[in-house]
Amino acid sequence: MSQSWSWLGELLFPSLPQVEVVGVEVSGPVARIEARVVVSGAVCPDCGTLSERVHGSYLRYPSDLPSCGRPVTVALRVRRFACRAPVCRRRTFVEQVEGLTRRHGQVTERQRVSVSGLGLALAGRAGARMATLLGIRASRSTLLRRVMELPDPAVGAPVAVGVDDFALRKGHTYGTVITNAVTHEVLDLLPERDAGTLAPWLARHPQIEVIARDRASAYAEAADRAAPQAQQVADRYHLWANLVRAVERVVTDHRACLRVPESGPEPEPQWEIQLPADAGNADAGEPADPGGRVAERRRANHALAHELLDGGMSQRAVAKHLGWSRNTVRRYAGAAKWQDLMKGPPAPRTVKLDPYKPYTLRRWEETAGRISGMALLGEITVRGYRGGYTQLAAWKQRELLPDGPPPPRPPTVREATDWLTRHPDGLTGDDAVRRKALLAHCPELDTTAHLVTTFAEMLTLLDGDRLPEWIAEAKAAGLPGISTFANGLNSDYAAVHAGLTTHWNSGHVEGAVNRIKMLKRQMFGRAGFPLLRKRVLLA
Question: Does pTM surpass 0.70?
Answer without folding.
Answer: no
